[in-house]
Amino acid sequence: MTLQRTPERGSPGAGALDDAMLAAARELIGLGAKGLFGPAADELVAEVSRRHAARVVYLRSTAEAIARHELPGADPEALAREVFSNFVWTHFVSKLLLVAAPEAAVAFVANHLDTGDTEAAVELAGPSILSGFHYTAYPLVALGLAVSGAAPLISKARVDVLDRPAAGASDQIVHLSDRSAAIRLTRALQQGRSVWALLDVVLPATRTARTEFLGRGMTVSAGFGKVARLSGRACLPISWRLQNDAIEVEVGAPVLCAEHSEREIIDAAVAAQAAFVRAHPGQWLEWYSLLDDAPAVRTEVRQGNQAIWDLLGSVL
Amino acid sequence: MTSVGPTTGLKVEVKPAVSSRRSKESDADHVLDGVRLGVRTVKGVIVAETEIAAETPFWAGEGPGPCLDFDSLDLLELVIFLETELGWQIPEEEIGVGWLTVGDLAAAVMRATGASTEVADG
């Protein structure tokens, strides 16, 4: 994909780019679930990619992180471009559908996301912590699980566009920035409800733990281990990827938290994800979180996302 | 009724309803003592009684003077301690609501339990 240089905001070219992006967004919304894949989605990905202010830093950081880790035969820059494309699709194409046409999003996951294995695993292990990483299409997977028999409480790092009431399932969400989030998650597990937690993003000023990931260290939130231990419930590692316009979910062996320390729980959960990332590196959207300057990169990425959503808001 | 806390071995005596032998102020003191005990257990350090007053903030930046420097995981452990060791269950709708100080949490426990409680070191 050849990207044109982004015109300065306020310049004549900037307005044309905005119009093209908004036109692509409107077309995608008009197609409903069919808009998730195909020319409309590709067009929106291309338009957002052109406009995203953090594109360069995201690509550079992702390539750098991939290069530092044990992925024999990987081309870091090519993989970084694949990851960025998946990132844009996830954060803009899938979220746009979730916000603008939530019923279509629910219909999509009902037909294209098989939660059977996950539900069976929960049935066997009892209420569990469904733990994953930020892979492509993670908001759709969260939605699919939220409306499935597993119906976990969904933990989210922060309030974003998905918290609009129209996005659906908003009453099943716990924001990790809330001081009582850990209590709510633990209580849910104790009272018989599964929870969903993505381990690979650490909020500022939160307690962290170091674990091994692809031959190097990785910092994750310590809260996962503590909630797991105090609830005494199993941790079920799950991962997923887009395959032929459907989402394939893999469920790993349960980690029985009552039998392990917080450190062991974290290590086991991350190790399960490392195996998936090694097999499908292009699906993981948070490679840059492995770098020391990840907080600065994340700030820039978030600002870039917000600028795009400020524009997309006009089509909602 | 007496029970033994599963983790600490503390003997807990929970008296049903507010006792006519105990004033409301004593009830409040006992709950505050229980919360202090929980804080000391969670933070793993010996903190002098005078350092944990009802006005002591949990969170940094929430008021003048020293605070307990809690994070959300400390709060989780404290609530679990109060539930499992002292038998004080706080309803979902009260969790975290306005809990800026030790006294705020103690007040929530008082509202939730309405019981006179006594903690004896085991």
Tell me about this structure:
- With 316 residues, chain A is α/β, with parallel strands linked by helices.
- Chain A contains 11 helices and 9 strands.
- In chain A, the strands form 2 sheets. In chain A, strands 1, 2, 3, 4, 7, 8 and 9 form a 7-stranded mixed β-sheet that branches.
- In chain A, helix 3 packs across helix 4 (76-100) and helix 9 packs across helix 10 (262-279).
- The longest helix of chain A is centred in the first third of the chain and has 25 residues, at 76-100.
- The model of chain A is unreliable at 1-5 (pLDDT under 50).
- Chain B is α+β, with helices and mostly antiparallel strands and 122 residues long.
- Chain B has a 3-stranded antiparallel β-sheet with strand order 1-2-3.
- In chain B, helix 1 crosses helix 2 (72-84) and helix 1 crosses helix 3 (102-113).
- Chain B is globular and about 30 Å long.
- The chains are: A alpha/beta (316), B alpha+beta (122).
- The A-B interface holds A 178-184, 186-187, 205-207, 222-223, 226-227, 230 and B 59, 71-73, 75-77, 79-80, 92, 95-96, 99.
Give the secondary structure arrangement, pairings included.
The complex is a heterodimer of chains A (316) and B (122).
Chain A: H1 12-31, H2 39-51, H3 55-68, H4 76-100, H5 102-112, H6 116-125, E1 128-132, H7 138-146, E2 153-156, E3 173-175, H8 181-190, E4 195-198, E5 208-213, E6 216-221, H9 223-231, E7 234-243, E8 246-251, E9 255-256, H10 262-279, H11 294-312
Parallel strand pairs in A: 1-4, 1-7, 2-3, 2-4
Antiparallel strand pairs in A: 5-6, 7-8, 7-9
Helix pairs in contact in A: 1-2, 2-4, 3-4, 3-11, 4-5, 5-7, 8-9, 9-10
Chain B: E1 2-4, E2 11-15, H1 24-43, H2 72-84, H3 102-113, E3 116-120
Antiparallel strand pairs in B: 1-2, 2-3
Helix pairs in contact in B: 1-2, 1-3
